TrEMBL record:
Protein's recorded name: Trk system potassium uptake protein TrkA
Domain RCK N-terminal: 2-118
Alphabetized PROSITE patterns for the sequence: RCK_C, RCK_N
GO molecular function terms listed in the Swiss-Prot or TrEMBL record: monoatomic cation transmembrane transporter activity
Any Gene Ontology biological process: potassium ion transport
Amino acid sequence: MKKLFAVIGLGRFGGSLVEEFHHLGFEVLAVDVNEERVNRFSELATHAVVANAINENNLKELGLKNVDIAIVSFGGNIEASILATLLLKELGVKQVWVKALSENHQKVLEKIGADRVIHPEREMAKRIAHHVTSDKIVDFIELSKNHSIAEIISTKKVTDKTLNELNVRSKYGCTIIGIQRGEEFIVSPSIEEVICPNDILIVLGHNNEIHAFEEKGV
């Protein structure tokens, strides 16, 4: 059964989320106090509703308790973001993800029970920075302060070698958890898997380990 999402706040970030969920084929409830914004995404969302998300009765009427993940994406209203998060948690929403506007905002959100705090601009900046500073890194996804997943394109240095021969785990500490080969995706490849030209290696580990592998091993 596919997950059901709710996006609360249809600014630039929230609106982009609604579009992506739609393109991926997921059901999404789009909520905003601004009728014009709601109308803009009415054809993309499964349901698009004009509602005040810091009103407990409004949230109850929307049936948000039934969604798998609610994403709070208010533009610059920190107070509304905090209040909406509190109400969603009190309603028993399974997962509440919230866009943070600052480090202090994040601290408050974490204290009141937000399941994940998002810094979209910062996270995108990091991904772009890693991409433009390396010819090998295709994408870089931060999992925590020190750990990430990187997509690293194979070079002649590793082509035609098995994962056992590369011995990445012992040499660098990180782990190749998958290989993207054209349209094929190999999950948890065996140690006998041979690296082909233009393979994209999905590498999990501490940031220092990933960069050591990217600089010296591939």
